């Protein structure tokens, strides 16, 4: 079962993504800030990271760089309310960029697509 | 030093002094006694009667007149009264009969024993006629100058018209009566005196025709100046050809034209005149005699007028020159005035333009500032709203999955989902608007792009019983564009039109090649929009639709603007609304 790490400082969004991803058959873990997210990447070996950009403290872009420096094989999905960050070349290093939406289909499809080779287990 | 012994101060014999000065007078004066015999005759009288003073003395003057009785009557009028002039005729010693005007003055004898005297002042009326004519001519010219000044200053003439007026006055029968006139003006740019304009016939035939035409001209110079264009302009080709050749550098100070201008006095050039530049002028004009009048104002020389009587050969008189000078001065003033006026007008118009531009810039700046502040605020608000909306909408979605169909809670949850997605769309629009359109342009056939965009909406239109008509006539004209964005604009127009119709109707999509660009329009036959809202159409958040976010048209305007085009919204005279834009054609490679 693939492990998805959700890094977002909005607790309700963490809960929503957790719910939806679990329903889709993924194992999830959540972090409320970038620092904690990095620690989990280090210690829990997630298969994919969903990373918010605008967070208090370290932002998602810096977190993305740190993750890639450590292990650039982990797929990272940037997930943000700011569609305009897509124009920032620093975000281009991520594997995908999904604008936040109440309809999480796009996010789920993206996660599916990135984890396809390993295939999500369970259901 | 004077003193009582000075002989000069001795009182002269007054009677003798008067008699002596009477004798020396150029006027024809004759003193008669009561019998009408000549007592004294002046030099002027000797000339008039053609005989010497001694010959006249003691003769009866009346006998020298063709009608002696008439003179006797005049000389015997009541003493003490100066008789008014009497018209008589004199037969002089050369046998000529001269018309004269006789005025008699009477002096009573100081002593009763002595007889009275009669002093006759006899004037050759021919001389007088000549003087009168001269006076009348001066008067006429003065009144002409007055007319000229009215013509030049009175009407709001531009410089060209003033130059024409000057030339018309120079040659008109009611004017200075020169055959031809040439106007040369100082050109500060080339530092030369440059031939500008001329008037006059090129030969005698033409002259007689013009003069015949001119006989039917209005006698008023003012009217004549203003009606000049239609009547004689076409005959001035030859003289204008001449004047165009005239060009003298200002530093050629010896040249007669430059000299006349710097001296500031009118000059008549006769056959014998030989000065630098005269021969060239004769060559240009094709005649030997002409007049040159400088045109000067306080600000300096303006130019010269050269005038001649090349066709009629009439001599240029001193009187002509005198008036030419006065006229030239007046013309100089008018020309200078007109130039200053034009200069002033130009400056005023420059100022107006600058002022208008400044005001427009200010307005644009204000608008942009407002938009920018709005944009920033909106961006922050939009983003802040997005997070909670995602949570609300996301959980509402998951709720709907857990509630059985038919359960009222499911309806409620569905409403939350729909409303949230509407809010998300508004935010999406907003953020689209804030992000300036980025263009990766391609040269594309406009009609193809427009056609594709319109066809996408055909099913939706048919569903609403709307007839979608494509009238694309831009041919294969190509425009540099970002196709997605242009289609977005068209989609916006089409959705607007479908929504405005609210049911069956007709939508026409048109395209045409226009000057420098391509015009594309979407017109409907719906109710049109409230004219008051036209101005607001470009303001963000303004919407004529109750459900719209009001950002659609603003985005469209930004996209078209980024393409270098213009966007337009208007109500059609036959009803309905039309939204259109013009995209510029690519500039041809230089």
Q: Approximately how much helix is present in the residues of chain B?
A: 40-55%
Poorly predicted runs of 5 or more residues of chain A: none
Total count of helical runs of at least 4 residues of chain B? 19
Query: Could you give the distance between the termini of chain A?
Result: 10 Å
Radius of gyration of chain B: 49 Å
Number of domains of chain B: 4
**Oligomeric composition of the shown chains:** heterodimer
Largest sheet of chain B: 6 strands, antiparallel
> What is the string of helix and strand elements of chain A?
EHEHEHEEH
What is the general shape of chain A?
Answer: globular
Structure description:
- The complex is a heterodimer of chains A (123) and B (590).
- With 123 residues, chain A is α/β, with parallel strands linked by helices.
- Chain A has one domain: Response regulator (Rossmann fold, 3-Layer(aba) Sandwich), CATH 3.40.50.
- Chain A is built from 4 helices and 5 strands.
- A 5-stranded parallel β-sheet of chain A has the order 2-1-3-4-5, sandwiched between helices.
- In chain A, helix 2 runs parallel beside helix 3.
- Chain A is globular.
- By secondary structure, chain B is an alpha+beta fold.
- Chain B folds into 4 domains: 117 residues, Beta-Lactamase; 213 residues, 2-Layer Sandwich (Beta-Lactamase), CATH 3.30.450.40; 81 residues, Helix Hairpins; 143 residues, Histidine kinase-like ATPase, C-terminal domain (Heat Shock Protein 90, 2-Layer Sandwich), CATH 3.30.565.10.
- In chain B, 48% of the residues lie in helices and 21% in strands.
- Chain B contains 19 helices and 18 strands.
- In chain B, the strands form 4 sheets. A 6-stranded antiparallel β-sheet of chain B has the order 8-7-6-11-10-9, with helices on both faces. A 5-stranded antiparallel β-sheet of chain B has the order 2-1-5-4-3. Chain B has a 5-stranded mixed β-sheet with strand order 13-15-16-18-17.
- Chain B is rod-shaped.
- The N and C termini of chain B lie far apart (99 Å).
- Classes of the chains: A alpha/beta (123), B alpha+beta (590).
- Chains A and B meet through helix 1 of A and helix 13 and helix 14 of B.
